[in-house]
Specification:
The structure is a single chain. The protein has 4 helices and 16 strands. It has one domain (about 70-265). By secondary structure, the chain is an alpha+beta fold. Strands 6, 7, 10, 12, 13, 15 and 16 form a 7-stranded mixed β-sheet that branches. It has helices at about 30-45, 80-95, 130-140, 230-245; strands at about 5-10, 10-15, 45-50, 70-75, 100-105, 120-125, 145, 155-160, 160-165, 165-170, 175-185, 190-195, 195-200, 205-215, 220-225, 255-265.
């Protein structure tokens, strides 16, 4: 896929689908600078994603309210505390009625020791084909799932013929079907209807799990799989964090997302 990450001290933005209609050097010091640049990209057909907005190292330092974005990178690189802050903000925007697609990106720069970090996380799209145009259309529509990797846990969320990113007319008794494939032992499947958890399941073994859940009210339904570190994994994580994310040192480790499906909307 063609694209470029435009970076400045005030924030990082992905421009996908075009060769950017500008070349460095360019000035990116204010909101107006970014809006001017991105308007040119949108006119040329670009899809825009604001990257890792609440990253403590290189976050977003402009207003997010009303910013012209198609997507927001809620999951950047291997899962860590800032990603959960990103997801919490995105959920809050959904509750306000704002539709922004949640995406993930491995932000791969290099291997660390023997660890290959490409594809951690991975976006899985419900696209008409594997062409750049159809994949980007799927992302703009919110028809994608973010997973730990290409062969890890996968979420399927449908309502009749509708799937994630679609809008359905709400009525009493309407149900969604949810399936978590390759669900790991101890991981929890959560289904949200707006701010409320309407279904929860904790896996007792490696399995797939399916359920039908009533949509209680208009708004949206999305699903996620979360997990918590066991004591040894928590110890190792804390040692790594000291090196690569020192600002997270001492912050309690929350439950982390392992898979996240964008919503189906109900009107």
């Amino acid at each position: 896929m063609q694209g470029e990450e435009v970076t400045a001290a005030i924030g990082h933005v992905n421009i996908w689908g075009i060769k950017p209609p500008f070349q460095p050097p360019y000035k990116l010091e204010t909101l107006e600078d970014y809006v001017c640049l991105l308007e040119k990209a949108k006119e040329a057909g670009a899809t825009i994603s604001v990257n890792h907005p609440f990253c403590k190292k290189c976050g977003w330092h402009l207003p997010l309210e009303g910013f012209p974005m198609d997507c927001v990178e809620v999951w950047n690189a291997p899962m860590h505390i800032d990603n959960m802050t990103n997801i919490e903000w995105w959920h809050g925007e959904l509750l306000k009625g704002r539709r922004i697609t949640a995406v993930g990106g491995s932000d791969y720069h290099k291997d660390y020791l023997i660890t290959n970090l490409i594809g951690n996380p991975t976006n899985i799209c419900y696209a008409k084909s594997n062409t750049q145009e159809d994949i980007l259309e799927a992302l703009r529509n919110g028809s994608n799932v973010i997973s730990q990797g290409p062969n890890k846990t996968m979420l399927y969320l449908t309502c009749g013929d509708a799937f994630i990113g679609c809008t359905v007319k709400w009525e009493e008794g309407l149900k969604v079907s949810v399936k978590a494939a390759k669900l790991k032992r101890g991981h929890r499947l959560l289904v949200y209807n707006n701010k409320n958890i309407i279904y929860e399941y904790k896996a007792k073994k490696f399995c797939s799990h399916e359920a039908e859940v009533e949509v209680k009210e208009k708004g949206f339904v999305f699903a996620e799989v979360i997990y918590e570190f066991k004591p040894f994994s928590k110890f190792v994580y804390k040692q790594v964090i000291k090196k690569i994310m020192p600002l997270d040192k001492g912050i309690p480790i929350p439950p982390y997302a392992y898979c996240l499906a964008n919503p189906i909307f109900f009107e």
